[in-house]
C-alpha cells in the first residue's frame, strides 16, 4: 500500500500485473512449442506416407516447410530433441535398424539441449490447426489432411531411414546456424550423406539432395573451400546419374557449377560440364532449375553470347519466387504480411547480371526496376552505370567504376562492366556528331576523357565503320566532319518510288486483262464441258469391266491363255 497526495492509500497493482504478463508469456511460449511439436510430428507422418504410397510429393511438402522450421529451430531445439527421443528408439520388429537408430539418437541428442516436457502431449491435432492459422501467409503450411502419427512395427521400420535422414538434416541446420559449431555440422552432414548413399532408396532422393546442399554450404562457410569437395561431388554425380535420382543429380551439378564459377573462375570447365552432363530439367525441382539457368546465363555472358545469356537469366528470374517483387507492385498486396521475401538474394544477384547483359546488348533496363523496395538498395550502385551508358558520360562511368570497384568484384560483374566502356564511348560520339558539324579531335579527346588524339581517331573510325555515325575524318586538320542529314522528302525520290510502284501495279493489271481476252476459257476459268469428258471415260471403263466379268462367268476364257492380263 502507498499513500497518495490526499492521504488516501491506494493498492499497488504493479506486481500483480507483471506476474500476469509473465504468466501469459509463458503460456504463449508453451503454445508455440506445442505447435512446433505438432508440425514436426506431422512432417514425420508425411514422410511415412511418402514411403508407404510411393509418392514423392509428400516428401517435397515436408522440405517446403524447411525454411519455417529452420527459423524457429534455435529457440525450440528442445522440441526437436523430444521428437528424436520419440522416434529413434526400439520399435517392435525393427531390430535391423535398432543399433543404427540408437547410435544416431545418442549422436543427435548430444548436440541438442535437454528434451522438452510437454504439459499436454495429446493435443497434437489442435496444435497443428492453431499453427497453420498463426503462420505467415508466405510460408509453406502443412496439408489440411488428417495424417495419423507414425506407428510402431513393420510400417515404421520401413519409413525409419527417411525419418532418420530428416532428423539428421534438422540437426545439421541447427548446428550450421551457429558459427562455433559448423565443424560438427560438417561432420554430421557428411556421415548422414554417406548413409543415404549406401541405402540406395528412391524415397531418399529429395532428402539426400538437401544434405548435399547443406554439406556444400558447410564447406563454403568453413575454413575449407568447395574445391576440397570436388572428388566427392563428381562421384555423387556419377552415382545419381546411374540411379536416375533427378533431384540429387541436379543439386550436384549446381554445386559443381558454383564451385567452378564463383570460387575458381573456371568458366571453361563449367562450360564443359554443361555440355557433357545432361541436366534433368523435366524432373528436377523448380529452385534447382532456376539455379542452373542462372549459372548457364553467367557462362554465356562471359562467352559474349549475350542473347542466350539474357534468355537464361530471364528464365531463372521467372522460376524464382515472385512474392517479394509482386507485393510491391500490386496495389492490393502492399499491406500483406511478408516478413522476408523468399529468394531475395537470388533475385538481387540475377537482376544485377541481367542489367549488365541488357546494356551489353544495346538495350536499357526499365527504370521501374530500380524502384522496387527489395531491389532498390542492391541495384543502387548499378543505376549510375545505366545512366552513364544512356547519356554517354564516360567520366560518370569511370567514377562509378572506381567508387564501387569492390562491390563489382564481389558480385563477379566487374569484367562485364569493363566491356561497357566502348558502349559509353559510342553513345558519346553519337551525341557529339549530332551536336557539332565540325569538331577537332582534341576537343573529342577532352569531352570523352580519352588518353590521346590517336585513340579518339581510332574510336571515330570504328564508329564510322560500324555505322554508328555518319561522318568523316580530315587528317590534315585533325577534325571530324559530320555529314549533313539530308531531308529525303525535300527531293523527288519519294515521288519516284511511288510512281514506280504504281506503274508495276498497272502493268500487272494490263497483263491479266490481256491473257483473259486471248483465251478466257482456259486461262482465267475452268471449261464448262470438262467434266463430261471425264464422265465418258469413266463410263467406258465400267463397260470394259462388265464385259470382262461376263466372259469369265461364261467360261469362254482359258486360264492358261497368254493374253491374260
What does this structure look like?
There is one protein chain. With 565 residues, this protein is mainly α. Helices cover 66% and strands 3% of the residues. The model is unreliable at 1-14, 91-98, 121-156, 333-338 and 559-565 (pLDDT under 50). The relative contact order is 0.04. It has a three-stranded antiparallel β-sheet with strand order 3-5-4. The chain has helices at 14-52, 56-64, 66-71, 77-87, 98-110, 124-134, 154-176, 182-199, 205-221, 230-243, 246-263, 267-276, 286-302, 306-319, 323-329, 344-360, 373-376, 383-391, 394-403, 405-410, 414-418, 420-435, 441-448, 453-465, 493-518, 520-524, 530-554; strands at residues 2-3, 9-10, 438-440, 471-474, 479-482. It starts with a strand and ends in an 11-residue tail after the last helix. It has a domain at 23-178. The chain is built from 27 helices and five strands.
List strands and helices in order, with pairings:
Layout lengths: L1 E2 L5 E2 L3 H39 L3 H9 L1 H6 L5 H11 L10 H13 L13 H11 L19 H23 L5 H18 L5 H17 L8 H14 L2 H18 L3 H10 L9 H17 L3 H14 L3 H7 L14 H17 L12 H4 L6 H9 L2 H10 L1 H6 L3 H5 L1 H16 L2 E3 H8 L4 H13 L5 E4 L4 E4 L10 H26 L1 H5 L5 H25 L11
Antiparallel strand pairs: 1-2, 3-5, 4-5
